[in-house]
What does this fold into?
Amino acid sequence: MNDKDLSGQLVESADGVAMDRLCERIRDSEMQPLDVGDPQPNLWPASQLKLMAEAGVYRWFVPRSVGGWQWSSSEIVEGYIRLSSACLTSTFVLTQQVAALTRICKSPNAELRESLVPGLLSGELSSTVGISHLTTSRQHVKRPALGAVAQADGYQVDGFSPWVTGGCAATHLLLGAQLDDGQQILFVVPSDAKGITIDPGFKLVGLTASQTGAIKCDCVRIKQSDVLAGPCENVLASLSRNSTGGFQTSSLAVGLSKSAIDFIGQQSFTRRDLTVTFESLEQQYDEIESRMKQLAAGVNVCTNEELRAQANSLVLRATQSALVAAKGSGYVEGHPVGRWCQEALFFLVWSCPQAVLDANLCELVGIES
Ligand SMILES: Cc1cc2nc3c(=O)[nH]c(=O)nc-3n(C[C@H](O)[C@H](O)[C@H](O)COP(=O)(O)OP(=O)(O)OC[C@H]3O[C@@H](n4cnc5c(N)ncnc54)[C@H](O)[C@@H]3O)c2cc1C
It folds into this structure.
């Protein structure tokens, strides 16, 4: 088959030729400037996300009953490793879109499901999440970041969601808010609804093109029909068994590790001094990948948090080893190895529950966890 024949092929398995081709095309794609760039143009992985939508990637995560392909957790882990090794930024954006999509699919709100899911699967609509203020962000602050007050037919929501990835490109936002009695709601709101302000993305240490920023809500009216779940305590647990720090999060760290380990492998062809480093990292990679797939398949080889801590350790060590191999050239802006080192730091702060933070610190300090 020639390139043209494969270009629009659906990716129905994580290890076929269509997946190889998708990863290649994603790796070769440039980030695109966003319309809203001011004062500097903001970049966004529009082409990479379009390629994923055309290949049916959003369908991997969704039950057959609503038009998905219902991949197993192990297949999803493999898919995420492959994609994140090709482009971490677009794959990270994908995880946030999927976090919204899967919760919409699981919601008892059939009307909302039916109106949004077909467009989200085709890429015609796009959603993202702002929920970390219910789990891993601002937990030491008494006043909820986003507060909801019950009204006759719904809620009024005020405050802000501190971290939302890709809000600038989303047609819909899935946000969480807390009522005065501590109960929480999850709701979906069009991103152009009255009272919503989407701040420009932060300039980050890495992954700036993920366009992550805050979203403000000023007297935003949410109808009962826009509520996905709640009011109840711990509303996220009611719609998802994937907790923060889960194996899907780890698979992105493992995917980035793979890029770095492959780089050391290539260098070791002509530099024998790198062989031991490459073989050792490759063995650790194989062990983590195998544990992750077993965990995804329901075999309790370790906890999600233990796996995440191991994946974090691997990605930091692998990317920095690649920098040692690339030497000063890798430290010059534009070299992929320097970028990978910056991107690896992201896993120290993204979706880290307390057990993972503790394990990260023990690893860095050099004490047993
Ligand atoms: C690039 C990026 C993209 C993200 N995308 C999303 C997304 O799309 N959707 C989403 O929902 N979330 C997202 N997140 C959020 C992420 O998962 C975490 O929730 C977030 O990184 C936690 O950091 P924080 O600064 O908000 O933590 P906080 O715990 O709020 O810490 C903030 C500051 O408070 C201080 N502090 C912390 N704990 C205490 C304490 N106990 N006592 C006193 N002071 C304290 C510290 O000085 C700290 O710097 C993203 C994060 C990043 C970095």
User: Anything to note?
Assistant: The first strand starts at residue 32 and ends at 33. Residues 128-232 form a domain with the Butyryl-CoA Dehydrogenase, subunit A; domain 2 fold (CATH 2.40.110.10). The first helix runs from residue 3 to 7. Residues 96, 128-132, 136-140, 162-165, 204, 207, 210, 212, 349-351 surround flavin-adenine dinucleotide (CB under 6 Å).
